Amino acid sequence: MRTLRLALVAALVAGCHFDKLFNSTPGGSQAPPPGSGLPRLAFTVQPTDAMKDSIIKPAVQVTVFDSAGNVVTSFSGDVTLAIAKDPGIIKSRLSGRSQAAASAGVATFSDLSINQLGNGFTLLATIDAGSVSKESASFNITAVPSPGAGSARTLTFTQQPQATAAGTAIPPVQVVVLDSAGHTVTSFAGPISVSLGANPGGDTLSSRTVNAVNGLATFSNLRIDKAAPGYTLVATANGLPNVSSIAFSVVPGTATQLVFTVPPSNTPARATIQPPVQVTAYDAVGNQATNFVGSVLVTIGHNGGLLFQGTLSGGGPVAAVSGVATFSNLSIDAAGNGYTLIATIVAGSVSKESAPFNIAVL
């Protein structure tokens, strides 16, 4: 049995590259590569008010982004539009070319119209047979021409920031310029900036600025690394009052690092190691992975037994609570110097080796 146990420990040690996995700076090679994960859609030109049976202008545009917030310029598939919310008295029909092939990741719909009156229409954009979708901001279909947009008076978030994992791009946020009647000022092409308002995590996100297109500014690469609830964004533009977004949360990412937050200490042979060893999981950007509830296994790394090799008892696996696995009954049966422990996430590739410690003669 002891020979088998040693073979298993050796296999664990050989399969783990500790320096590469755990000594890199937060946010380094462990972060997901750009373009990984499902794409996201955003209405980069929202539908605006229009008369019944008249073409919606400016042309509606839908853009495909990757999970890192970059436009997927290689995407040339079809984007499909349909009416999502229909306030018409009878069922409304969307006319025009409601399916368009994207060019460099952007699909343009230049001849859309709706045949019923109503306030609060929205459109739904989909790709990949509906597996990825996005709903537009609301707009109205009127019997008479809407009054032309007046001068810019206010800003508003038409796509609010959403709860996002730390270190990944927030789904595209959009800010629109409105006149005093609440119409989009499509002639506005000036710069709009967003920055952090409420900052409960102490993140260092700097102000980001983009030029509006038809009165709309899209922020597709915002990223916050410090996990915390209650963040807000503030949008600003010259001569206009600032506006705050709704509150949103940044949650820890996937556990990619382990740390011995209570390391093993020198202990007599066969005695329980005190205080109990604790191993904490962290995400790639250094947040405690409080959402990690998997199990952690502890084994001997370097076996420092003097007369014979030591055997570890109480190594689990132990289920983590809020990302922390506590080993309350660890012991080693053979005296020696320079023992180390290896913590490993069960059924995963994440491991960490402890600092050395000694086991004394009873």
Mean pLDDT: 85
Strand content: 35-45%
- Strand-pairing-aware structural class: mainly beta
State the major sheet: 6 strands, mixed
Distance between the termini: 24 Å
Radius of gyration, CA atoms, in whole angstroms: 28 Å
User: What is the CATH first-level class name of the largest domain?
Assistant: Mainly Beta
> How many structural units, i.e. domains?
3
The number of helical elements comes to 2
Which term fits the overall shape? Answer: elongated
User: What is the β-strand count?
Assistant: 33
Judging by the overall fold, what is the CATH architecture of the largest domain?
A: Sandwich
- If you consult CATH, what is the topology of the largest domain? Immunoglobulin-like
The unreliable regions are: 1-36
The helix fraction, in percent, is under 10%
What does this structure look like?
- There is one protein chain.
- With 362 residues, the protein is mainly beta.
- It has 3 domains: 2-29 and 256-360, Immunoglobulin-like (Sandwich); 34-146, Velvet domain (Immunoglobulin-like); 148-251, Immunoglobulins (Immunoglobulin-like, Sandwich).
- It contains 2 helices and 33 strands.
- The strands form 10 sheets. Strands 2, 4, 6, 9, 10 and 11 form a 6-stranded mixed beta sheet that branches.
- A hairpin with a 2-residue loop joins strand 19 (233-237) and strand 20 (240-244).
- The chain is elongated and about 95 Å long.
- The chain starts with a helix and ends with a strand.
